[in-house]
Amino acid sequence: MSNILRYNEGEGSDNKDECDGARKTEQPSLKYTEMEGANEWMSLPANEKQLYDLFRSGKRHPAMEMADAAMKIKRSPNQVFLLLVGLRGSGKSSTVNYLFETNIARTSDSKSETRSTTEYMLQMKSNEWRIPDLTLSLIDTPGFGDTGGFAQDARNIMSIRYFLNSHPNLIQNNYPNLVMIIQSINDNRMEGESSSFAKMLKGLSQIDTIDHYNPNVVIVLTHATSIARNPKIWEERVKKKKEEVRAIVRLYLGIKPEIVVQENLPEENDLERDGDWYLLPNRDKQPKILYQACKRILDRAGDKLGHEAVAVGFIHGINKTVLKGFSILSSEVTSKDADKMHTILIQSIVQLSSSSEVGTMLENYKKKKNMTDLENDILILQVKFRDLHISNSSDLQTMTMNQLMSKFHPLKITSQMQKILGDVFGMHYKQ
Ligand SMILES: Nc1nc2c(ncn2[C@@H]2O[C@H](COP(=O)(O)OP(=O)(O)O)[C@@H](O)[C@H]2O)c(=O)[nH]1
Ligand SMILES: [Mg+2]
Hints:
By secondary structure, the protein is α/β, with parallel strands linked by helices. 39% of the residues lie in helices and 14% in strands. The protein folds into two domains: 16-29 and 76-332, 3-Layer(aba) Sandwich (Rossmann fold); 357-425. It is built from 14 helices and ten strands. A hairpin with a 5-residue loop joins β8 and β9 (285-286). α4 crosses α9 (335-347) and α10 packs antiparallel against α11 (375-387). The protein is globular. The structure holds guanosine-5'-diphosphate (GDP) and magnesium ion. Guanosine-5'-diphosphate binds at residues 86, 89-94, 106-109, 143, 222-223, 263-265. One of its GO terms (molecular function) is GTP binding.
């Protein structure tokens, strides 16, 4: 049997959910093969006009339906984009190579290497939907935390914006179907709001890659076995890391991401096998859990095309041609654009001022309450107040919660944050 889905045949796959690794079980609508004129193959239309012309000529095909759905949520109609970002050496290449069984260049960007935002295209076809040329583009980006410092980081980040602006199959304001943020779970560059991780998110938030209406972000915490092996301790540490990451992502990107842990070197780290899967210390199966996280994001967004490309890309052993595609060199970024981003990155490293009155009040509240689960919310408030230049409590006393909410947008003020704001500053909603 060729085309066996990667994981539904593995030994010990005793449960139906196993097939979830692929798309067979739940298709969005009527199977194409059940429709009139089935078996005709059609390429995805590239824009509104092509789609319209096809409709007018009386054609009906799933390729049209998918392109239409994609454009409605500001995704490319004829190509699926997965943007990879992460700190230097975080495991970007390893992660996608492992997930899709491909081989996009695996290098740790050293000083001599050319920095660029480069597309690697997986050329596939969708048998299910009779689409001959399904393309999944993995966009590899220069690692953040460049040896060239913030000035280089700024250029690198801007090269992503240039890429998205000038790619031939991306229409103005299209979002990547998925933004995959790779971070080593034991990397202390993640801690605190002035960490490299936070700065990377800050940069990312400025280049319009994050879709707030249909969130497109998955965080992959790599080196999963490095924090512990004992299942109980491992789970506790993973839970804590996830909470930290969730808070910092909420702060800078204003969305709730999917978060998955992964060990990219499962053999070397003696992970137990279960059929085609490797078992993490809590017995979660990888990379199935990463695939499923991507699928949840795409399904929530109604991104059928993204779903199909990721599902086909995930199938074990099928032929996937990888071609190097479009590329933008960081050196192509103009000094003006690089400087603008540089300023943003520099500003985000200003420490939370302990001399700020509101900062101190929040700090005291945290100490008094002595509740660790307040920490992330207080941190978020401190950072937001700093960024909004709110330092005196009198600034807040003349403000309603509703006004503060609009200042915080797109970050939501959670009920716990409301409680804190009420307790510390006496802020309330006005109907
Ligand atoms: N132990 C372990 N090593 C990893 C993992 N992910 C990546 N690496 C190693 O970290 C180094 C950098 O990985 P790479 O994928 O090239 O990172 P990139 O620069 O972000 O693309 C390589 O030597 C990888 O083998 C992981 O999950 N666990
Ligand atoms: Mg790499």
